[in-house]
Design brief:
Elements: E1 2-7, E2 14-19, E3 22-26, H1 32-41, E4 51-53, H2 59-62, H3 65-71, E5 76-79, H4 80-89, E6 97-100, E7 105-108, E8 111-117, E9 126-132, E10 135-140, H5 148-154, E11 159-163, H6 168-173, H7 178-185, H8 193-205, E12 210-214, H9 223-236, E13 246-249, E14 258-260, E15 269-271
Helix pairs in contact: 8-9
């Protein structure tokens, strides 16, 4: 199984997961052109997509759907409430929508896809885990706090895409209006660096060997700041982020690293790929 982010941040999110002939797009929150360019850079034709999995209906997760689905009639998976919101925003998409209940799973060819509810200010947002060849990855972003359902969802993941959206002090002292600060810092907003660090710790203690920090704010965070916060929390728990696991940050724009989870291997094989549009 291979995983690569196409973009990750408040301006747009998308990632590709490949296993055998299966090609799954996680969210489509950047333009259809950027999605197409990213897929092609990863040796994937857009027509090869098996499905698109949507976490929730906010624009930074679905903005590319309208244009993308004009040309590609690929199934779109989402919870029923999220699918309803998508149908309001994207024309002629109803026949492509496949709904499920948060907390349930389904097969997409050789990949077992499982969802778990996330606390976010959306209709019915979820995170996803994808398992193939005995390896598991988890996508866990856009949530205001860590819940038992989230912990159960990411348990046993070999690779975790974990939110580290902001520094709480930066948000409080920054120029955002009060209502936006309250939203970001609230229980249905986004994980701070400290909360993301705690999620990373719990995942590492559960066996994760790669943690990719995602959905960083452009105004209230930096990759260096996020890495420092998460590294400090891991070291405090006796986990060496340079020896015990791979810790990285997903770029806000352009391709991230390509991660390969291999069958029958104890260690994670890792290789880098240059960003396609940077």
């Amino acid at each position: 199984m291979e995983i690569c982010t196409l973009a990750s941040g408040s301006s747009g999110n998308a990632a590709l997961v490949k296993s055998g002939r299966t090609r799954i797009l996680l969210d489509a929150g950047i333009s259809a052109r950027r999605i197409t360019d990213g897929l092609q850079a990863l040796d994937t034709a857009p027509e090869e997509l098996t499905a698109i999995l949507i976490t929730h209906e906010h624009s930074d997760h679905i903005s590319g759907l309208a244009t993308l689905t004009k040309r590609l009639r690929v199934p779109i998976y989402a919870t029923a409430a999220t699918a309803r919101q998508i149908s309001y925003r994207v024309p002629f998409v109803d026949e492509l929508l496949r709904t499920f209940e948060a907390g349930t799973g389904f097969w997409l060819e050789d990949v077992w896809c499982e969802s778990f509810p996330t606390p976010h200010d959306a209709a019915d947002s979820v995170g996803y885990t994808l398992t193939a060849g005995g390896r598991k990855m988890a996508l866990c972003t856009d949530l205001g706090h860590i819940t038992p359902e989230v912990l159960a969802g990411v348990a046993g993941a070999d690779l975790l895409l974990a939110e580290a959206n902001h520094d709480e002090d930066w948000v409080r002292s920054g120029p955002y209006p009060y209502y936006l600060k309250s939203r970001i810092l609230g229980d249905y907003g986004h994980l701070s660096n400290q909360s993301g660090a705690e999620l990373a710790r719990l995942a590492a203690e559960g066996g994760a060997r790669t943690v990719v920090l995602a959905h960083l704010s452009a105004q209230n965070n930096t990759p260096v700041h996020a890495l420092e916060a998460v590294s400090a929390r891991l070291r405090g728990a006796g986990i060496d982020p340079e020896r015990d696991l791979e810790l990285a940050v997903a770029p806000r724009s352009g391709l991230g690293a390509l991660y390969r989870l291999e069958r029958g291997r104890d260690a994670l094989a890792f290789c880098r790929r240059e960003a396609a549009n940077q």
